[in-house]
Amino acid sequence: MSKQFQFKLVLLGESAVGKSSLVLRFVKDQFDDYRESTIGAAFLTQTVTLDDQTTVKFEIWDTAGQERYKSLAPMYYRNANCAVVLYDITSSATLEKARTWIRELQRQADPSIVIALCGNKSDLAARRQVTEEEAKKYADEEGLMWAETSAKTGEGVSEIFTAIAKKLPLTAPPSASRAGAARTAGRAGGVDLNKQATSQPGQDACNC
To answer: Which keywords belong to this entry (predicted)?
Structure first.
């Protein structure tokens, strides 16, 4: 019997590092050269298939990078199962900002949160300021996942989300009901969407 699990994922990082573009590429396989800055946060969903019997649905919160919205971030990473912290490989300053976000997650987010450090804009390697070695060394020291991606070309995008899905604990909470699913999803494990679906016949378990 196939199983679907649901996890809350939050994207963090400096403004203009490509968070929204990364999510758009992952969810719709699209890229827009010009995107307006996110205000507050945007919500999207996407499902990753791990094998014939297991799928993971990500509930994705794409947060705004501007400083004036920083105080809202805990609303989105609180109880998150996983986080993607982005930096722009052409800007050393954005890696420093990513380090700040990671420290904040380590202090305030769920201790079991899976964190991936992601260097975006790998298509602009000729303008690189952050070396792969520097970023990977930091990620290894902090126990983070690490990858480089290009939202523009799609390189590495699906791979990093799939890798996160594989690292999450695919265990359904006991007697997960639809009413308790939202409360449980942000804690220790995933929500088994099959159990949710059986509680309300006729409702699609995955509406992404």
So the answer is: Cell membrane, GTP-binding, Lipoprotein, Membrane, Nucleotide-binding, Prenylation, Protein transport, Transport
